[in-house]
């Protein structure tokens, strides 16, 4: 990697880190570097300073907070997918994280970096959105909470203000009776998703009580498939579910790229949503 | 998983699992030896060009054109020159008088146009990525920063991206002389008669997409001078050819140039080239008197490593109603890119005599037009011409089968050369020395469980299963062992096809082998050791193989075209025989008998019927001390040999592939893959398996994943691996491989070559399987790579 020149600091405390970011508007936080370094390599980003968040214990680890789990921003994908707490209390996060990239990337890339980067093609934003996660940020001015629905603003743009550090996210525990699935469609095992569908489904007596669906890469931000969610309320497994999932592309605005044109992405959203719901509901 | 006959699979696995351990002599040929090279490579004791450091070394970086086609009106490097750490900066103009033109060694036709190809553009750029200026700095970072300070003014010219458009009248021109690089035609038999009133006519057009060879080790060059001579370390497949070409291109006398290919991490043809960067590094070190090094980034490589394939293939078959082929007509457009590089125009021509493949027919016609476009030049890529030919004919054989309602294997059987007909001179004029398509096919079908899979396919069709099963057949032959020098001369190739080998028996009885081939991942060191161990009767461990340095390996034609073993391995064998001849004389002299009384076994000459003997090691020492030599015998036990084959070799095989196509998403997933190859005698089964596995993976990659995409303005869109998809092990099935063994008769080892076979065979096997899955829905082609989106669109097309 041959980036342009930049300064590098590795603060030992959160205050120092906030300070470093606040004092220089071209400074950037550095987490696992798995998205930032490629941008530097291609000289698509020219930060003046990289503020390495790697020595801030407040940002790492997974914590049980009663009705929710707090996942620290600097927790690596590998730690998240192996955490027994995440696996038991918010399994959708664990099983989605296991589909991210490859082991090497998962050992460096972080949960918070994935959210802060706000790439609509990344897998975790749709999951956090579907689960109504709450992101917690901190700056020199103090801490604030941002609901996932307000966090993802546009392509590669989050609600984080300059100088703000993402501390992590609160993931509500959904409780019993829920099933989960992340249906990721990609051409090679290590490739980014062309479309992804995160589904959480509460089911009883052959019908669906409640469903939450997050769509990856179906627009400039992750999206909820609200139309499907409401059509699924009380839907019986089988034709009713199938019909409900036909609305998966409603309100989406997917882009076209080398891997898929928008109409194909819309089609995939419908097929994959149906598969995600069926699997989450445990109905083959 | 498919049902595979457990007995057969067990046998197969048992064979490749039996890895031989060191010790003993004899019986080396045919043993699955672990590669001698690997311990060093895997533990990081490597010498990649980029690892090499010379005192006072500087780093070079190139500024590359962002335009596909433009006149250069101004290049100002002065902004770069003043920057810290910058030693020098140059434009193409600064080297205009000495850089010469990059060579094309294969003028395939009379009408060929070979445009001037300056290593650094001087007045016009013709593809995105062409070098226009360079910076030499004390480190890479400063060099990269300084590139941004160079100013270039371009006057845009129209891009020429599409081959058909390029040939229309009034198209913008890539070069003054027009967009046609060459035309070629071959006819054999009465093609008109063959097509006249033919009961069956198949007419198809296939597109060989453009591919980017992706060797693990990016290209790198280090050049240094001692004021008189020059040394160039470079990640190349062709140190010997390169040295000659550098001398011719730059005017530096050949004896003043030494080329070294240190450890080279793969090439696949992409390092069979004389590159702009190699020439420029040599000239830079001459001008600056300091060592200079250049290493490409992956994105720079995607833009500027020569590309592969990129042909439009029009293929027509005339057949009888029983499926027998009467005639075959092929017309190609081959994208040369912006310039003709080392063997660019020869690539489509390497397939010219292979479209007829394993089949008998009455008439054949081949035509090819080379086309200039404003894209990176194309050149050799694993298989070079043969994958294209095999793809088109094997795709069309399936179409013929479908047209006639025949099983695809059956239609091939009705046309192929039967084993008792070898040697067989084909309609295209090649003489296939040996082969047994029946044996390989029967074996493959048994391993694959062909009938069972056909039954499952029928069942899924009946049920309207959203996941359909397709079965792909590919029965190929190819042409290896490049090449008989005489035939290369006839095709106007600029060099011969012989290979050189040297044996040096050292005083202590150890053996140094020198080969003119230039391995870059294949395992020559191991295989050559096996040949020498058996022939001279010395232990495998006592042999070392030197290569890839023109100061050590003084003669050679290098490694490409699956030629190394078939030509270079045989040269080594011949050199061993010469050593044995001399050793026999010496032994007779020392044992006071006549040479005819000696028999050679297990590394020793023994007087027949006695226990009086001399080992080859004792003889090496005696030849070294030279205290008592026979009349006319010189000291030392060494020999040199060159081998020039009198024919190509023709590996063949049958590959079968089962693909599950998800008709809802368009995703194709390979479920099972069986390859039965006949590569003649096998020196090391483990190495052969490795070559077959890698080859199949690369062919599957063309079928499903890889495509270099240029937009209408000539910008390459696939500059990173996020856009240019390569499969990994996780995307591929477990390959079931097996062999039949019909020795080649054109060389004393009976070997045929295996470097490209897998790639040649697998692409059509996969696409045939996908089309086979979709055929009942009225689909008879999917363009490569068969992405889920393409399959889905094909299905959408017929749903309407
Ligand atoms: C080969 C490869 C394949 C990949 N495949 C996938 C995939 O399939 N799916 C997927 O979802 N992702 C994929 N990724 C991305 C990977 O998940 C990254 O780890 C993730 O996108 C970013 O996390 P990071 O820790 O590396 O962040 P960095 O790269 O360090 O940072 C990314 C951005 O977020 C900002 N940032 C990071 N942390 C914070 C913070 N705590 N507070 C404020 N700002 C912050 C940085 O300033 C930067 O702008 C892939 C990456 C690679 C290299």
TrEMBL record, chain A:
Q: Which GO terms describe its molecular function?
A: FAD binding; oxidoreductase activity
What's one Pfam family the UniProt record gives for this protein? Answer: FAD_binding_5
Keyword Oxidoreductase in record: yes
Keyword annotations of the record: FAD, Flavoprotein, Oxidoreductase
Q: PROSITE patterns from the xrefs?
A: FAD_PCMH
Instruction: Please report the stretch or stretches of sequence annotated as the FAD-binding PCMH-type domain.
Output: 1-176
Q: Note the superkingdom of the native organism.
A: Bacteria
Can you say what this protein is called?
Answer: Carbon-monoxide dehydrogenase medium subunit
From TrEMBL, chain B:
Q: Which domain of life is it from?
A: Bacteria
Q: Where is this region: Disordered?
A: 1-37
Q: Which UniProt keywords apply?
A: Molybdenum, Oxidoreductase
Q: Where is the Aldehyde oxidase/xanthine dehydrogenase a/b hammerhead domain?
A: 43-158
Q: Name one GO molecular function term.
A: iron ion binding
Name of the molecule in the record? Carbon-monoxide dehydrogenase large subunit
């Amino acid at each position: 990697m041959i980036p342009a020149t930049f300064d590098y600091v590795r603060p030992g405390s959160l205050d120092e880190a906030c300070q470093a970011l606040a004092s220089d508007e071209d400074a950037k936080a550095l987490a696992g570097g798995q998205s930032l370094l490629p941008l530097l390599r291609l000289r698509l980003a020219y930060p003046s300073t990289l503020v390495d968040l790697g020595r801030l214990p407040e940002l790492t680890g997974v914590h049980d907070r009663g009705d929710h789990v707090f996942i620290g921003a600097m927790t690596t994908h590998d730690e998240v997918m192996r955490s027994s707490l995440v696996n038991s209390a918010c399994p959708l996060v664990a099983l989605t994280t296991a589909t991210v990239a490859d082991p090497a990337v998962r050992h460096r890339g972080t949960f918070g970096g994935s959210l802060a980067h706000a790439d609509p093609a990344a897998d975790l934003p749709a999951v956090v959105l579907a689960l109504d996660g709450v992101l917690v940020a901190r700056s020199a001015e103090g801490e604030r909470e941002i609901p996932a629905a307000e966090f993802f603003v546009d392509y590669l743009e989050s609600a984080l203000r300059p100088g703000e550090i993402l501390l992590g996210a609160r993931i509500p525990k959904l409780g019993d009776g829920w099933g989960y699935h992340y249906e990721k469609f990609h051409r090679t095992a290590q490739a980014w998703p062309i479309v992804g569908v995160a589904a959480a489904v509460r089911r009883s007596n052959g019908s669906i009580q409640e469903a939450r669906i997050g769509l990856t890469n179906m627009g400039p931000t992750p999206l909820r498939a609200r139309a499907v969610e409401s059509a699924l309320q009380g839907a019986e497994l089988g034709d009713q579910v199938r019909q409900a999932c036909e609305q998966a592309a409603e309100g989406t605005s997917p882009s076209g790229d080398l891997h898929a044109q928008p109409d194909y992405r819309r089609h995939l959203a419908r097929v994959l949503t149906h598969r995600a719901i069926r699997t989450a509901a445990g109905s083959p | 998983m498919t049902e595979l006959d457990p007995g057969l699979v067990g046998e197969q696995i048992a064979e490749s699992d039996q890895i031989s351990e060191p010790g003993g002599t004899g019986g080396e040929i045919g043993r699955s030896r672990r590669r001698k090279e690997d311990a060093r490579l895997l533990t990081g004791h490597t010498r990649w060009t980029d690892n090499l450091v010379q005192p006072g070394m500087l780093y070079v970086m190139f500024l590359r054109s962002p335009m596909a086609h433009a006149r250069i009106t101004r290049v100002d490097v002065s902004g770069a020159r003043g920057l810290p750490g910058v030693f020098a900066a140059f434009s193409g103009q600064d080297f205009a008088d000495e850089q010469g033109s990059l060579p094309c060694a294969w003028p395939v036709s009379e009408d060929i146009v070979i445009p001037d190809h300056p290593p650094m553009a001087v007045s016009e750029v013709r593809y995105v990525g062409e070098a226009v200026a360079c910076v030499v700095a004390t480190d890479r970072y400063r060099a990269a920063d300084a590139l941004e300070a160079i100013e270039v003014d371009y006057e845009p010219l129209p891009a020429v991206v599409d081959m058909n458009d390029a040939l229309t009248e009034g198209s913008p021109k890539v070069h003054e002389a027009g967009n046609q690089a060459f035309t070629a035609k071959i006819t054999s038999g009465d093609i008109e008669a063959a097509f006249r009133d033919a009961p069956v006519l198949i007419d198809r057009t296939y597109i060989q997409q453009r591919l980017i060879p992706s060797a693990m080790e990016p290209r790198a060059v280090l050049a240094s001078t001692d004021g008189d001579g020059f040394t160039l370390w470079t990640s190349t497949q062709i140190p010997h050819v390169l040295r000659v070409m550098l001398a011719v291109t730059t005017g530096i006398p050949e004896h003043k140039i030494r080329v070294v290919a240190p450890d080279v991490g793969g090439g696949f043809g992409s390092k069979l080239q004389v590159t702009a960067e190699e020439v420029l590094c040599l000239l830079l070190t001459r001008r600056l008197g300091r060592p200079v090094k250049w290493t490409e980034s992956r994105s720079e490589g995607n833009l500027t490593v020569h590309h592969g394939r990129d042909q439009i293939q029009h293929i027509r078959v005339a057949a009888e109603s029983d499926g027998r082929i009467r005639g075959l007509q092929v017309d190609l457009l081959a994208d040369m890119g912006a310039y003709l590089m080392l063997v660019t125009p020869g690539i489509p021509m390497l397939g010219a005599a292979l479209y007829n493949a394993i089949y008998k027919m009455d008439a054949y016609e081949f035509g090819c037009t080379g086309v200039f476009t404003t894209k990176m030049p194309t050149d050799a890529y694993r298989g070079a011409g043969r994958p294209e030919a095999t793809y088109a004919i094997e795709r069309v054989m399936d179409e013929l089968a479908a047209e006639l309602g025949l099983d695809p294997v059956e239609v091939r059987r009705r046309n192929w050369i039967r084993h008792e007909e070898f040697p067989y001179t084909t309609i295209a004029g090649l003489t296939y020395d040996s082969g047994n398509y029946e044996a390989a096919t029967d074996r493959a079908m048994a391993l694959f469980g062909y009938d069972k899979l056909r039954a499952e396919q029928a069942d899924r069709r009946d049920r309207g299963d959203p996941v359909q099963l397709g079965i792909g057949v590919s029965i190929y032959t190819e042409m290896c062992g490049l090449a008989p020098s005489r035939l290369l001369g006839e095709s106007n190739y600029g060099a011969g096809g012989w290979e050189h080998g040297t044996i040096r028996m050292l005083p202590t009885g150890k053996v140094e082998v020198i080969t003119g081939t230039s391995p870059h991942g294949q395992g020559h060191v191991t295989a050559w050791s096996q040949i020498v161990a058996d022939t001279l009767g010395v232990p495998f461990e006592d042999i070392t193989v030197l290569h890839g340095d023109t100061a050590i390996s003084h003669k050679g034609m290098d490694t490409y075209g699956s030629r190394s073993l078939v030509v270079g391995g045989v040269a080594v064998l011949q050199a061993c025989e010469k050593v044995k001849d001399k050793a026999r004389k010496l032994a007779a002299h020392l044992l006071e008998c006549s040479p005819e009384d000696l028999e050679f076994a297990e590394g020793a000459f023994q007087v027949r019927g006695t226990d009086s003997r001399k080992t080859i090691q004792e003889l090496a020492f005696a030849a070294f001390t030279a205290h008592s030599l026979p009349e006319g015998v010189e000291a030392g036990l060494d020999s040199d040999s060159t081998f020039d084959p009198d024919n190509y070799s023709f590996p063949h095989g049958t590959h079968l592939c089962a693909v599950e196509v998800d008709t809802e998403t368009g995703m194709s997933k390979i479920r099972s893959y069986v390859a039965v190859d006949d590569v003649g005698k096998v020196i090391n089964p483990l190495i052969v398996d490795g070559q077959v596995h890698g080859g199949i993976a690369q062919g599957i990659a063309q079928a499903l994943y890889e495509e270099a995409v240029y937009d209408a303005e000539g910008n390459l869109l696939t500059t990173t691996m996020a856009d240019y998809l390569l499969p990994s092990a996780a995307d591929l099935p477990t390959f079931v491989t097996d062999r039949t063994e019909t020795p080649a008769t054109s060389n004393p080892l009976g070997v045929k070559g295996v470097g490209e076979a897998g790639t040649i065979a697998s692409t059509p096997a996969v696409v045939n399987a996908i089309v086979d899955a979709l055929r009942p829905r009225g689909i008879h082609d999917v363009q490569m790579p068969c992405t889920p989106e393409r399959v889905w669109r094909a299905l959408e097309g017929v749903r309407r």
